[in-house]
Amino acid sequence: MSGSTRSDFERERDRLVAEIAENLGKCVTAVNQLNRNIENVTQVGGGFDAVHHLWTSFQQVMANGSYAEAEQRPEPILGRSNDETIKLPAGLAPGGGESLYQSVGPEASAGDGK
């Protein structure tokens, strides 16, 4: 009887080992397929870099009015990192856009009150 039980155990063990091996094979196949898909996505995504650069250039040209102006770097809002005078673009601020402080500063408001 114990010989029969051991035989059943070995058969069940062999069946489970075969099932595990089959499932591991399926997992390896699925991981390989996933790897190929990720590589394809990476290749396709890399192809859009030139298109991205083109549209970025187009957006800059449209925002600045010309290609020459789009290539220039915009002036920083503050002249220095510790400068409190904010410089606004011409035409967007009172006083010709030279600085916000000059047009709205204490001297300007004192002069308006007289």
From TrEMBL:
It is found in: Chromosome, Centromere, Kinetochore; Cytoplasm, Cytoskeleton, Spindle; Nucleus. Keywords: Cell cycle, Cell division, Centromere, Chromosome, Cytoplasm, Cytoskeleton, Kinetochore, Microtubule, Mitosis, Nucleus. GO terms for cellular component: DASH complex; mitotic spindle; mitotic spindle pole body; spindle microtubule. InterPro entries: DASH_Dad1. Residues 91-114 are annotated as: Disordered. Transmembrane segments: none annotated. One of its GO terms (biological process) is cell division. GO terms for molecular function: microtubule plus-end binding. The keyword Cell division applies. PANTHER family: DASH COMPLEX SUBUNIT DAD1 (PTHR28025:SF1). Belongs to the DASH complex DAD1 family. This is DASH complex subunit DAD1. It comes from Rhodotorula toruloides (strain NP11) (Yeast). The lineage of its organism: Eukaryota, Fungi, Dikarya, Basidiomycota, Pucciniomycotina.
